[in-house]
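Morning. Coffee machine broken again, so started the prediction first thing and wrote up yesterday's gels while waiting. Chain of 345 residues, entered below exactly as on the submission form.
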Amino acid sequence: MFQDQVRLPLQRRITSPENTRNMRKLTDLLYGRGAAKFESNESFQLIFQCWSLFGIKPLKQYRSGRLLHMCFCWFCLILCPFSFYMGYLQTLQTAPVMVQLSLLQATVNVLGLPLKAIVITIFQTHLRSAEPIFVRLDERYQSTESREQIKNCVALSTRLFTIVGFMYHLYGGITYFQALVTNNYPLRTWLPFTDYIPQPTIRYWAHFMFEVFHMAFLLSVQFTMDVFPAIYIRNLRTHLNLLTERVSQLGGNPDFTDEQNYDELVDCIIMPTCYQASMIEEYSTKLPDAIFHCNWLAMDKRCRKLTIYFMHRAQENVTFVALKLFKINLTTNLSVSKSCCKEQQ
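Came back before lunch.
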C-alpha cells in the first residue's frame, strides 16, 4: 500500500513537463551542487532520460510525433543484427582476416541488443518500482552526514555514467576516424537503402553518415544498459552503509524510551530484509560488528533478544550468484583470468 501511495506522486514528479525542466543540470549532478536535498533516484535520472531519447521509454503517450520517434528508434535496433550479419558475410571474400574477425566480434555484440531493449521495455515498470522504495529509504536519513553520503552517491553515479559513455563513444570515434582515413565504412554493414545509389560519392557518404549515426545510437543504448546495474548496486551499497552506521548507534540516545529503541531496531531490520538478495558482500560483513558494538546494554530485555536475532540474521553470507553456479565477485574474475592465462601458455 505504501508503494502504491508513493509511486503515483513520484511518477508525476518525474514525468511531468514542469518537473522535467526543473531537473538538475549535468554539472550539478557531477559535482553535487544545488540547494535542494539530493535523492537516490537522481542517480538514474540520466539513464531514464536517455532511454526516452532512444525510444525505449516513451516521453509522452498518444502523440503521433512520439510514436514516429519510437518507431524509428526500434527500426534502428531491429535493423542492427541483420545489417551487421549481412555486412560480415559480404566481407568474407574481400576483407583481410583481421577485419573479418573484428566485424564478427561486432556482429556478436549486437545480436542481443534488441532483445535486451525488449526486456527492459517489458520490465520497465518493475525497474521503476524501486523508486518509491528509494524514496522511503531516503526519508530515514535526514542528518547532514547521511544526506552528504546520498549526495556523493548521486555524484559518483553520474560520473560513472559519464565516464562509461565517454569510453564507449571514444571507441566509436576512433572507428569513424580510421574508416575515414582509409576511405572505408566504419563497420561495413549492409544497408540496402544506400548501397544501391548509383553515384559512388553520394553512395559512400550516405552509407558512411548513416553508419556513424547508427553506431553512435547503438553504443549509447548499449552503455546505458550496461551502466544501470552498476549504478543500482552503488545505491544499494550507500544505503547499506547508512544502515550499518545507524545500527551502530542503536541504544546510544538516552532520551529514547524502550519502546522507541524497539521501534528503531525493527525499522533497521526491515531494510536488509527488503534488499537481502541484492546486498554487497563487503558492506554486509560490517553489519554484524556494528550490531555488536551498539549500546545494547542500555536496552531492555525485549530489545536485547531482538538484537541477538538481528545479529544472527546479519551473519548470513550475502552474495550475487550467476545461474545459481558462479559467484559474481573479484575472486571469480581472477580465477577466470588465471584460467585464460594458463590456456594461452
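The radius of gyration is 25 Å. Going to sketch it on the whiteboard this afternoon.
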